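Sample entry was shown:

___
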Amino acid sequence: MGFLIGLPQFVASHNESDAAVPSETIRVAILKNVPSVTVDGDGIIATRENGSAVAVTTPVLIKTGKNSVIVNGTAYRRLTFSGASVLYVNGKPYRGVAEASPGDKGVLVVNELLLEEYLVGLINCEISSAWPIEAVKAQAVIARTYALNRKEARGTSLYHLESSVIDQVYDGCEIEDSRARRAVSDTAGEVLSHNGSIIQAFYHSNCGGKTEASENVWGARLPYLAGVDCTYCLAAASSAWEAKLSLAEMEERMKAAGYKVSGVTDIHPGVRNNRGRLKNVMVVSSRAETTLTGDQFRKVMGYSVIKSTNFTVRVANGEAVFSGLGNGHGVGLCQWGAKQRALDGFGYAEILSYYYPGTELKKLSDIR
């Protein structure tokens, strides 16, 4: 799960608390600014923005137009596709409906579907459903909580969530399985709350020994995101990492991000915060010394390269070698830590209360 600019407001929503799939829906941007997209499937029905049907032949090729999307030479402000079962968008299967509309620089495709179905598809994108079932249930609860929070925060926007690490990773229904569905069903309608409101349920892959405080990443302090000690993730292979970048490559990445640097010669880690992560990083060049926050440095160099802000660096022979702990921003639940706690016999409610201290596990119907 990924990185957010700012912190959304608390959200309350509604849900049925019985065994049936609740009717809450979610809108997920699955493609953004693509020049064209193909929609296929059995029994495809297309409707335009006024609800009238549009005759189409599958597979449907949708192209970018001027403030429109174009199918068979005709421009539309928006087209919504539904099918007899799943829809295939660029070859990937999705439940619910797919909505194509003009984006800033291409076609925007939004998948609207039941929240609980979205969660089933999400599980194996964020973790593995083969993990201990209590860890999978914990993931289902925090993903549901996070999604509802973003739905409220984004209100009437074209979509509530992105399908990447910007929000939660979601790749349709292709990797659904029975364990993912069980975890979602067994926790149906359950969310984490604090003082009667749904929390902001940030999470990450591996904290490297200590989870991060929200104010150190986004500047806003939340009592249930103050950070906890977590030794449970340290045995995972993802806990420790190493990365190598040439100084020339680092300079190019900084220039591409808009920083005015020339002739990078050294990298100096700055001071660390109260959770052990770097507040800032200094890049030394012939022009000047440029200071970036720890998260800015990760973003510029690549989140998949500099996996956390808890690292040391040594520079020799024109190359920087980074050695770090953890993977992700570190706020909230540590997924690998949750896995180990489940292996140690803790239930999902206990796991969640550990990583989000002071919160309560409740049904949405009890929060309203």
Summary: DSSP finds nine helices and 24 strands in the chain. The chain has a mean pLDDT of 92. Residues 118-232+330-367 form one domain. Residues 136 and 328 are 19 Å apart (CA to CA).
